[in-house]
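queue> pop job 88
queue> type: inverse folding (structure -> sequence)
queue> payload:
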């Protein structure tokens, strides 16, 4: 995902045709996902794992010691959903675990 999808945006005229507008913020959202799910096989990720990840992220303070925002966790979950949708499209998964929630 990082190598193929988190690249600088490519524009044709005023339209973005590939990549992401902000690579650095996207990488910040992906980093905790890699740390949490990195050792798991993609087929073994369940909706329960996603729900547990969400709770862990809410209870983990930010680097400044403050409460993590709902928006920050939702951005991370959005990236995870995108990764799992790509896995379904590539036929590495039969179904996205997010569909079970």
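queue> result:
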């Amino acid at each position: 995902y990082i190598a193929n999808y988190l690249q600088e945006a490519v524009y044709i005229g005023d339209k973005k045709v590939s990549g992401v507008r902000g690579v650095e913020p996207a990488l910040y959202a992906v980093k905790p996902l890699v740390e949490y799910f990195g050792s798991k096989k993609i087929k073994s990720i369940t909706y329960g794992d996603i729900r547990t990840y969400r709770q862990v992220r809410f209870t983990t303070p930010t680097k400044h010691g403050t409460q993590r925002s709902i928006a920050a966790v939702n951005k991370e979950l959005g990236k995870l959903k995108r990764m799992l949708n790509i896995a379904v499209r590539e036929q590495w998964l039969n179904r996205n675990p997010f569909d079970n929630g």
